[in-house]
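hey can u check if this looks right to u? its 133 residues, i copy pasted from the old doc so theres a chance i mangled smth
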Amino acid sequence: MVIADTSVWIPFFNRPDSPEKAALDLLIDANEVALVGVVLAELLQGCRASSERETLSEALRALPYYEVTQSTWSQTGDLSAQLLRRGVTLPLSDLIIAALAIEHHCQVYSLDTHFKKIPGMRLYLPASRRSFS
């Protein structure tokens, strides 16, 4: 299973010819994409009209959803503390995504390179990008 970060969903919705759209389409068709609350909230905040929000919400409701639990919050705090000891500060939203991915044994598909700094993080690389990484 792959948790797609907001940085991947934005080109998915806004650039139909993007490699992110192609990669996410394949993952969606294979039922391999999961949604998390922070990504849902970030996507919904970008909606300009209530009709756009309803369409987006309905489409995303079809995806498996991972909820944040008390254990997830603890894992998030632990990840943040480990990174801070190394002098690395990351957004709380991305640490929550990472904690959920680790907890549910998922990869994260993101265009944000700072996910590479998170211990225990497994990143998803689409086939088109694997040869370049």
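Strands lie at 2-4, 33-36, 65-66, 107-109.
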